[in-house]
Amino acid sequence: MIPTTIAIEVVYALPERQTLLRLDVATGTTVGRALVASGILALHPEIDLLAQRVGIFGRFVGPDRALESGDRIEVYRPLVADPKASRHARVARKRADRDSDRNMRA
Fold first, then answer.
1. For the chain, how many structural domains are there in total?
2. CA 101 – CA 14 distance, rounded (Å)
3. Which of 8, 38, 47, 106 is the residue whose CA sits 20 to 30 A from 84?
4. For residue range 60-73, what is the model confidence (pLDDT) as tens digits?
5. Which of 3, 22, 19 is nearest to 11 (CA)?
6. Cβ distance 9 to 20 under 8 Å?
7. Where are the strands (E) in the chain, listed by range?
8. Tens of pLDDT along 32-60?
9. How far is CA 96 from CA 27, 68, 81, 84, 105, in A?
């Protein structure tokens, strides 16, 4: 027998807090419909689904993807910095620190 509802979670994390909503939705519900049904958009009006990506367990998905029991929909925040540029800046700082330590010992 096919269940008529499935249990899912919707999560959105900010630096200072996390929102996790558990709900039951009808079998065949899409990601987009589940986001609306969860009320996450009312709790966090800053979420812009046209600009922000969503995923299930770390994998990007579209709003038309059908959900399966146990899925966790994650709403991702926009990046504040390019990860590649941040890494290059960290490496440059470490090299500069290392070089200044060497100069102090000489």
1. 1
2. 37
3. 47
4. 999 999 999 999 99
5. 19
6. yes
7. 5-13, 18-26, 54-56, 59-61, 72-75
8. 999 999 999 999 999 998 889 999 999 99
9. 57, 50, 21, 19, 15
Q: What is the dihedral of CA 41, 46, 51, 57, to 10 degrees?
A: -60
pTM, entire model: 0.73
- In this structure, which long-range contacts are made by residues 16-20, counting pairs with CB atoms below 8 Å and at least 24 apart in sequence? 19/43, 19/44
Tokens matching residue 81: 């910095």
CATH of the domain at 34: 3.10.20.30
Asked if 52 and 75 touch (Cβ cutoff 8 Å), the reply is: yes
Q: Can you give the residue range of the structural domain that contains 62?
A: 5-79
Strand order of the sheet with strand 18-26?
Answer: 18-26, 5-13, 72-75, 54-56, 59-61
